[in-house]
Amino acid sequence: MRLSELIRYYSSLPIQQELVRFAKDREVATQFGQAFGKRPDVLELPSDVIKQVRSGATSFHCSEERWSNPLNLTSNSEKKDLDALRIGFDLVLDIDCKIFEWAKVCAKLLMWALETHSVEHYSIKFSGGTGFHIGIPWEAFAADERWAFPDVAQIVAKYLREYIRQPLARDIAELEGDVKKISEKSGKKPSEFMQNGTLNPYKLLEIDTILISPRHLFRMPYSLNEKKGLVSLPMKPRDVNKFQPEMAKPENIKTVSMKFLDPEHVGSGEASQLLMQALDWNIRSKEKQQTREVIKVEYADKVPVEAFPPCIKCIMEGLPDGRKRSLFSLINFLKSVKWPWLEIEQFVYDCNNKNNPPLKTGYVKSQLSWHSRHRESVPPPNCRAFYQDIGICKPDFTCNRVKNPISYPKHKIGKKVIKQ
User: Fold this and answer.
1) C-alpha angle with apex 122: 120 to 367, nearest 5 degrees?
2) Are 197 and 84 members of one domain?
3) What is the distance between the alpha carbons of residues 33 and 265, in angstroms, rounded to a whole number?
4) Which of 41, 65, 182, 292 is the most core-located residue (most Cβ within 10 A)?
5) DSSP codes, 90-140
6) Is pLDDT larger for residue 275 or for residue 127?
């Protein structure tokens, strides 16, 4: 694009104001043609935008992580430094596909998946190229999980990716009609995307999880895509079906009518169900990949508290951090050691009251409600990394003999607790 066109577009005060609003607490990187400017950088005033453009800036990019002071980031920052600066992160799903209509199919299915998991206040925007960005604000997730980036965010993204795998394959096949047409559009041989007679949609497009990594950047809403000359345009979810790329031409953008990742109306913990199911799926997926001792342990009756492992007892005493992930582990542990459901509920509420501060009652209630509908026993995470991260791995002699907290009572109080 010519400099005059860039200046004309970015001279819009509403666009400048929206770029500055979105840049709050984020690292910003300005692109000058094919190269990025200095990092880290920030946008603080609307006038900063046009100054950059007059200096040759073509587009603006930012982190999905939010920082207490982005300018304190350095290329040498270690994980502990990043964790100390990070105040949260938004989940941004990047649909990468050369075929726009296939990207649209994927976007609609991801929105359906989010709504199925009770997430209502997500955002969607055209990437400015041939794909879409779908975002869930940090406020919808756990405030004490900021240090868990990128692991937790990647698990949620991979879970959603698998959740829509089959309907995505079905909808692409129905849209195109036959394998030959898919092959012609994609430029791939059928053998590259058909496996055992089934279409693998992720050989045709990708939900990019590379974006979900420390200090990785994505194009800011209302920034231009210099290659396509189109705006990265937010839209209402219901408008995705009728959206076409030409609608994002700069001359068609008269005002800022939609915001991307606007946390103003997001309910705290709105995405808690999604988070818990993703973590549960992740454990199940790992169990399919390895045989674990815990699978063989089945208790005949309720295991007494005195036989609980040290990590679970730490959770019982209350925690300042890692409370939501500990809640997930505690509920799964109690289910696996044959506690009656009503006793699990009361025990969980009592443990939460000892947290500093306690989790909101509504959040605990939502997790118990979900688990009450899924009564099958799923073991908590394996020893020891999960518990070390939270700071509750305090092994005793018995811990050296187990790979998962579920096995601890068997070794602690003997075979009398095992189902014969």
Assistant:
1) 55
2) yes
3) 36
4) 65
5) -EEEEEE-SSHHHHHHHHHHHHHHHHHTT----EEEE-SSS-EEEEE-GGG
6) 127
Q: Which two tokens stand for residue 80?
A: 């502990």
Tell me the pairing of strands 132-136 and 91-96: antiparallel
Hey, which residues does 29 pair with through a beta bridge? 61
Helices (H), 177-271: 179-186, 190-193
CB contact at 8 A, 121 and 140: yes
Asked if residue 58 and residue 164 are part of one domain, the reply reads yes
Quick one: pLDDT at residue 267?
66
Contact status, residue 277 vs residue 397, Cβ threshold 8 Å: no
Tell me how crowded residue 255 is: count the other CB atoms within 10 A of its CB. Answer: 8
* CA torsion through residues 339, 341, 346, 352, sign: positive
Angle at 256 between CA 229 and CA 26, to 5 degrees: 80
Tokens matching residue 110:
């991801």
Q: Which two tokens stand for residue 49?
A: 């935008």
The domain tally of the chain equals 2
| Residue 145 domain-assigned (yes or no) | yes
Last residue of a domain, one of 265, 282, 308: 265
Query: Does pLDDT of 291 surpass 50?
Result: no
CA distances from 112 to 5, 54, 106, 107, 326 (A): 37, 42, 10, 9, 29
Q: What CATH number corresponds to the domain at position 62? A: 3.90.920.10
* 100 contacts: CB under 8 Å, gap ≥ 6: 130, 131, 245
25: which DSSP letter?
T
Record the pTM.
0.73
How would you list the strands of the sheet with 35-36, edge to edge? 35-36, 28-32, 59-63, 217-219
C-beta of residue 79 within 8 angstroms of C-beta of residue 213: no
User: For residue 286, is it within any domain?
Assistant: no
Cα–Cα distance between 235 and 257 in angstroms, integer? 8
